[in-house]
Amino acid sequence: MKWSELCVHTTNEAIESISNILHEAGASGVVIEDAADFAKERSDVFGEVYELDPADYPEEGVYLKAYLPVNSFLGEAVEQIKQAINQLLVYDIDIGHNRITLSEVNEEEWATAWKKYYKPVKVSNKIIITPTWEDYQAGSTEEIVVELDPGMAFGTGTHPTTVLSIQAIEKYLKNEQTVIDVGTGSGVLSIVAALLGAKQVFAYDLDDIAVKAATINSKLNKTASTVTVKQNNLLNHVTLNPDLIVANLLAEIILRFEKESFTLLKPGGLFITSGIIQAKEFEVKEALVNTGFEILEVNQMEDWILIVAKKPE
Fold it and tell me: CA-based, 20 to 30 A from 167: which of 81, 97, 100, 134?
């Protein structure tokens, strides 16, 4: 089969939204090449190793590269993608240059070349995330290794929003607590919670591909007895009362269920939200406070914000 590489030159703010559009359009893989990743200085506080090639990166903004099969529907799919991206302007999302280009790629080369982007990374004091094909051995008894197979739709859990969420879960989760992971994606946050001592984890996602990926990754990490993966729209029809809810989602989506989160959480329970761009920080904080939450912590990595809120006891 022949594949076409569709490249969107956009902004960091639009990464999550456009990635979702590409996925829904049938993309068989997404690569993010962010100019900021190459230009910035890195603290390597966790001992990370970075292998970046400047030729892969734009001078400014972000390249999102997706892979679509070359068939009679390609032209229609590209037009739908363009329209959906332009529609983001209605939600005040900056799409930047929004320059879209197409090029043909060799399937055999693409099938293995994308793996060069994924290496083992220590994302918190305890958690190491490694792709399944890397032979990583824990350096100490304190390290917890999470293996992920990103397949063709998900990354390996090293996006800033995911890292912030993992660090917050490690900091706040207590043994034997119940956790809900809203919009689980690859399942990485649910797996981390289970490995850090959660009694039960309920992983919800509306996308059936995400449900399958999270189920596979949970089995891979031997957490299937703790993690229940289910197709569900946010917290609709959920009745259980967790100690902690984590949601790594766009601010616009978080603001659809902050009241339900407050209602469901046990007194003293925590709501960990990430995926929030700087411009939306005040709006999310205000909504959480108006709902009744107390803001415990606001953390930032690059342009992304994480908020930890508590339901009063």
Answer: 134
